[in-house]
């Protein structure tokens, strides 16, 4: 069921008229949805179609912000802010391309489903990122415990503390 009307929403669109489309699934499978559009001459179908085509872009933006940190770069210059955001999107693309390549080779990259995601059917970007971390970082960081026990530990001696350091620190 679709219902469309025009309204002015000052906080969302200022003084410009918006088309609001209310969508309800009579079967109750999908939640009720409200879509906003500034094109007041567009039909209901066009507005829903635009939203459907834009959805994957919005998901990519959300995952890049939340999982790769493009929302809050710690930069000093304006160019660095732009570059860090672009780097996050490049990283997103590289992780997806790596995962697709590995998946085509038949590698089992996704762990078994957790009990609370028993209805999960699709592989998400967070699954791809976790697979990339497991395959690239885990072999370098976590070494088999028993294999490395016989190696000597390196205990670097500390430098002797100088008295002038204590004086400067007023200790």
Q: What is the count of β-strands?
A: 3
Quaternary state reads single chain
Number of domains: 2
* Main sheet characteristics: 3 strands, antiparallel
Structure in words:
The chain folds into two domains: 1-42; 58-141, no CATH class. It is mainly alpha-helical. The protein has helices spanning 10-13, 44-68, 78-104, 125-136, 138-141, 163-169, and strands at residues 2-8, 17-23, 33-37. α2 crosses α3 (78-104). It has a three-stranded antiparallel sheet, with helices on one face. The longest helix has 27 residues, at 78-104. The chain has six helices and three strands; from the N terminus they run βαββααααα. The model has no long low-confidence stretch (mean pLDDT 80).
What is the topology?
Blueprint lengths: L1 E7 L1 H4 L3 E7 L9 E5 L6 H25 L9 H27 L20 H12 L1 H4 L21 H7 L2
Antiparallel strand pairs: 1-2, 2-3
Helix pairs in contact: 2-3, 3-4
């Amino acid at each position: 069921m679709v219902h469309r009307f025009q309204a002015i929403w000052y906080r969302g669109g200022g003084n410009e008229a918006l088309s609001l489309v209310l969508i309800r699934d009579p079967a109750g499978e999908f939640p009720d949805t409200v879509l906003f559009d500034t094109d007041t001459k567009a039909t209901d179908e066009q507005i829903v179609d635009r939203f459907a085509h834009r959805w994957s872009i919005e998901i990519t933006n959300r995952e890049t912000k939340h999982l790769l940190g493009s929302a809050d770069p710690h930069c000093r210059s304006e160019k660095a802010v732009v570059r860090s955001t672009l780097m996050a999107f490049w990283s997103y693309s590289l992780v997806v391309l790596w995962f697709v390549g590995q998946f085509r080779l038949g590698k089992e990259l996704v762990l078994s489903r957790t009990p609370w995601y028993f209805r999960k059917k699709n592989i998400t970007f967070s699954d791809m990122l976790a697979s990339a971390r497991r395959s690239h970082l885990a072999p370098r960081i976590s070494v088999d415990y028993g294999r490395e026990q016989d190696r000597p530990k390196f205990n670097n001696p500390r430098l002797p503390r100088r008295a002038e350091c204590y004086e400067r620190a007023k200790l």
